[in-house]
Amino acid sequence: MLVLYCPQGASVPQFTNSPTLIVMVGLPARGKTYISKKLTRYLNWIGVPTKVFNLGQYRREVQSYKSFEFFRPDNEEAMQIRKACASNALKDVVIYFSKEHGQVAVFDATNTTRERRVSIVSFAKEKGYKVFFVESICDDPDIIAQNIADVKVSSPDYLNCDKEEALADFLKRIECYKQTYVPLDDEKDRRLSYIKIFNVGSRYLVNCVQDHIQSRIVYYLMNIHVTPRSIYLSRHGESNMNLLGRIGGDSGLSPRGHKYATALGTFIKSQHIKDLKVWTSHMKRTIQTAEHLGIPYEQWKALNEIDAGVCEEMTYEEIQDNHPEEFALRDQDKYRYRYPKGESYEDLVHRLEPVIMELERQENVLVVCHQAVMRCLLAYLLDKTADELPYLKCPLHTALKLTPVAYGCKVEHVFLNIEAVNTHRERPGVSFTKHVHLLQAQYKIIKCIIDSQYASVASDVVWHSVKVAQHVVNQTFSQAILTLGCRINDHT
Amino acid sequence: NDSVPHAFTLTNSPTLIVMVGLPARGKTYISKKLSRYLNWIGVPTKVFNLGQYRREAVQSYKNFEFFRPDNEEAMQIRRACATNALKDVVIYFSKEHGQVAVFDATNTTRERRISIVSFSKEKGYKVFFVESICDDPDIIAQNITEVKVSSPDYVNCDKDEAQADFLKRIECYKQTYVPLDDEKDRHLSYIKIFNVGSRYLVNRVQDHIQSRIVYYLMNIHVTPRSIFLSRHGESELNLLGRIGGDSALSPRGHKYATALGGFIKGQHIKDLKVWTSHMKRTIQTAEHLGIPYEQWKALNEIDAGVCEELTYEDIQENHPEEFALRDQDKYRYRYPKGESYEDLVHRLEPVIMELERQENVLVVCHQAVMRCLLAYLLDKTADELPYLKCPLHTVLKLTPVAYGCRVEHICLNIEAVNTHRERPGNVDITRNPEEALKTIPDHF
C-alpha cells in the first residue's frame, strides 16, 4: 500500500493527488446505486475517503414525487428542477473535496445524455478533478424486473402505491429515459476514461485507465457479482490462551473450544449450503476448528490474527504493567495504533484486502478467523467506520451469517450455546487516562500506607478506589486494588 | 496438514491461455511477461511458442512465401507444429505439474481457435484468449525493429530486407484474420487489448487466475523507463553481522546515501519516484536524495522471527536445526514467528503491480526484498532467488529491452561489509558448527 512520507510517523494513504469524480451512467434499474454504494464501501475500507452523491435524493428534497410524467423529456419545468439538482450535487462535491478531505466522489445519476456528460467533464476539468465513468448496460428483462422488485418498489417515491402501481409507473419512467439515452461511444468518447459493464459483469469494456485508483476500481468492479450467496464468519473455538486472558500466540483449542468446533460442524451441515468454501488462518486454533467440519479448507496467512509484537502472549494486566504508555496510546487511537514490532488494525485492513477481493469473487464461504481479523471483515461487509471497527463485538462461539440484500447485508447472529470467556474490551471512558493516573496514584498511596502500617486509613482509601475503578472499564486494575485491600485486611 | 501459502484458490483445471493477433502485435512480449509474473507468484506457467516449433520443423526460413494462405505444403507443416505444441502442453499439465500454458501463436482464424477450444474441452482445460489488436504503424514498425529483424529467421539478411519480408508476412496473415467476435464468441473467455493498452474488452472471466491475469495485463505498459534497485546504506547491525532489526546507518552507510544522491542527480531521470520501507535504514538513505519519497510497509525486510538481531553464529548456537533446515530449502523455509522468502513474494506482489504501472522508479530496500524483486524482473527461479547477489552500496539499473531486462551494476565505491551467505556444502541437521558457519561473511 502506498504511504506518503509523513514525519510524524502516521501513514496517510495517498493514491492520487487530484480528487477523482466517478460518474455513473445508465438507465434506471441498471444497478448504478448498488455499484455506487458498494464501491464507496470498498474505497472507504481501504482508506480512500469516498462519498456517494445520489441525484434522486436531491430531487426528492425539492419535489415530492407524483408520477413518471416528471421524467418526460418534454417536461420543461421538471428539466429545470433536475438541472438545478445536478448543480447542487456538484457544488456539494466541491465542498467534499476542498473542505472535507474527500478523495473520491461518486455521482450517482443516470447521466444518460452526451450533453450532461460533456458538462460534467468541463466542470471537472475546470476544478482539476479526474473523471472516471462507470456505465452499466443491461438488456436482460429478468435482471431489470428483479432490481425493480428489490429496491424501486420500496423507494420513498412509491410510499403510497401498491406494488403493481409502482412497477407500472417505474417502467414508464425507464421509457422516458430511453428516448434520450446515448451510451458512451467507442469512437466519440475514446479519450474519456471509463468502464462499461454489460449484463451484470459477463463483459467489460475498459478505456484509458489513468492511474492507480482507477485501476483498483476497475479490478474491484470486475470481481463483484450479484449471485445470491451467504458469507459465514466465525472465530476459532475458545483457545487455551483465551482461557488465560492472554492475547495473540498460537495455542490449541480448549475443551470447550473443541465442543464449539463440533457444534459449528453440525450447524453448517444443517444449513445445507451449496459448494461451501472454508477458509482458516495459518494458526492452530482456526485449523483445529475447521478440522471438525469435515469439509476441505484452505489456509490463508493473511487471516492470521493481528500481530501484537512485544505484547504477544501477555495479559492486559501485564501490558499495563510493562507497557503502560503503549496501553494508553492504543486506547487513544485503537485503529491506527501499531504494537511495537507488531501491527495496527490499519495494517490488518491492508493485509486483508486480497481476502476481501476473493470473498467478492466467491459464493458461499465460511471464514474461520480471529477477533481483530473478524472485526476488519465485518467492518467491510457492514460499512463500519475506522472508529467503530476496533470495537465491533465478535464474541467467541458465535457464527455470523451475512446475506447481501438490496443495498446492504442482512446479519444473523447464531450463538451455538457453548460457553466461552469474553475477550471483548470496550472502548474506555472519556477520561480514562485521567482515571488510570488517579488509580495509579491511589495505588502508590495505598502501598505507602501498608508499608507504613496505617492500615485503618488504608481500608477507606481502598474502598474509595474500588468505587472509582468500577467506573473505569479496566477491571483488572480494580481487581488489583481489591487484592491489595484483602492484604490490608489481613494486616488488620 | 501442510500449509498452502498461496492466497488464492489454484484452479483445479489447468488453464490454456491462447494468444491471438497478427505478427508484431506483442503476443510473445505479453506471453513471456505474463509467464514470468505467474511463475513468480507461484503458478507454474510455460510458454509454447509456435514459431520455435516451426523453426525446428523447417530448418531454414527462406521468405514470406511460406506463410501464403495458398501454400498447401506449408499449411500441413504449420498444422503439424500446432498439434505437436498442444501435445507438449498435455505433457506439461499431466506430467510436469504445470498449471498454466501460454500458446503463443497467431491463432488468427476461427477454424484454428475452434479446434483449440474442442481440444481443451476434451482434456478438461479452461481456455482464456488474449487478443492483441494494433493498427498504429509506428508501434508495429518499432516491434519489427526490436525483435523481428534480429530473429533467427533473418540471420542472413540485412535490416531492410528483413523488414520488407516481414511486412509481406503480415499481409499473408491479414487475408485470413478474423478477430474474436463480440456476438459469435460471446461464450468464450477473453481479453482484447487495443493499441498497447489504451482500451480493453473483457468477456466472461471464469475464475481467480483469469481475474489476476486480466488485472496484470491491464497494468503493464511499454513506455520506456528504468527501474533502479538499491539496498539501504550499510547499517550498524550490518557491521556487527546481525540480521534484521531496525538500526540506523553506519558512517559509511551515510556516505553511500550521499553518493547515491549524486548518482541519481547525474542520471537526469524524468519524474523519478522513490520508494522506501518503513525501516530507519532505508528512510535515512532516501533522506539524502533530496527527493520526496514514499514508504511501503510491504518493502520491509524479511521478518526473521526468533532470529531477529542475531548473528549467524548465534543462530547456529541457539537454533542449529533451524539453521540447517533453512539451508535445505531457503525459499520455503519460514523462521519461527517470522517469514519465508515465499511469504515475502506474496507481500511484494502489490509492489510489483505498482512498479509495472509506474515509469521511472528507485526502490530503496533490503537484501531479501531486493532478491525477490530482482527475481521477478530477471525471471529467476525460486531456487536461485534466495542466493541472488545484492551487495550493499551497489545500484542496479534495470531497463526493459526486447523480451527481457538489461541490467547495469553500478558500485558507488564506498566500502561496506559483505552480507551475502552462500549455501554451505553440508545442509544436514547433524552437521557440525564449522560446516554450518563455513560460508558466513566477515563482520566486526
From TrEMBL, chain A:
Molecular-function GO term, any one: fructose-2,6-bisphosphate 2-phosphatase activity
The organism's place on the tree of life at top rank: Eukaryota
Domain 6-phosphofructo-2-kinase residue range list: 9-228
GO biological process per UniProt: fructose 2,6-bisphosphate metabolic process; fructose metabolic process
Residues binding substrate, per UniProt: R235, H236, G237, E238, S239, N240, M241, N242, R285
GO cellular component: 6-phosphofructo-2-kinase/fructose-2,6-biphosphatase complex
A Pfam family per the record: 6PF2K
Keyword Oxidoreductase part of the UniProt annotation: no
InterPro entries noted in UniProt: 6Pfruct_kin, 6Phosfructo_kin, His_Pase_superF_clade-1, His_PPase_superfam, P-loop_NTPase, PG/BPGM_mutase_AS
Family: In the C-terminal section; belongs to the phosphoglycerate mutase family.
PANTHER family recorded: 6-PHOSPHOFRUCTO-2-KINASE/FRUCTOSE-2,6-BISPHOSPHATASE, 6-PHOSPHOFRUCTO-2-KINASE_FRUCTOSE-2,6-BISPHOSPHATASE 1
Function: Synthesis and degradation of fructose 2,6-bisphosphate.
Assembly behavior: Homodimer.
Name of the protein this chain belongs to: 6-phosphofructo-2-kinase/fructose-2,6-biphosphatase 1
Record organism: Oncorhynchus mykiss
Automatic annotation (TrEMBL), chain B:
6-phosphofructo-2-kinase domain location: 10-224
Physiological role: Synthesis and degradation of fructose 2,6-bisphosphate.
Keyword Phosphoprotein annotated: yes
PROSITE patterns on file: PG_MUTASE
Gene3D superfamilies given in the database record: P-loop containing nucleotide triphosphate hydrolases (3.40.50.300), Phosphoglycerate mutase-like (3.40.50.1240)
Binding site for substrate: R231, H232, G233, E234, S235, E236, L237, N238, R281
One annotated GO biological process: fructose 2,6-bisphosphate metabolic process
Organism: Oncorhynchus mykiss
Subunit structure as annotated in this protein's UniProt entry: Homodimer.
Recorded family membership: In the C-terminal section; belongs to the phosphoglycerate mutase family.
A Pfam short name: His_Phos_1
GO cellular component: 6-phosphofructo-2-kinase/fructose-2,6-biphosphatase complex
Protein's name in the database: 6-phosphofructo-2-kinase/fructose-2,6-biphosphatase 1
Catalytic residues of the enzyme: H232 (tele-phosphohistidine intermediate), E301 (proton donor/acceptor)
Keywords recorded for this protein, A-Z: ATP-binding, Hydrolase, Kinase, Multifunctional enzyme, Nucleotide-binding, Phosphoprotein, Transferase
InterPro entries the UniProt entry points to: 6Pfruct_kin (IPR003094), 6Phosfructo_kin (IPR013079), His_Pase_superF_clade-1 (IPR013078), His_PPase_superfam (IPR029033), P-loop_NTPase (IPR027417), PG/BPGM_mutase_AS (IPR001345)
Gene Ontology molecular function: any one: 6-phosphofructo-2-kinase activity
Gene encoding the protein: LOC110532627
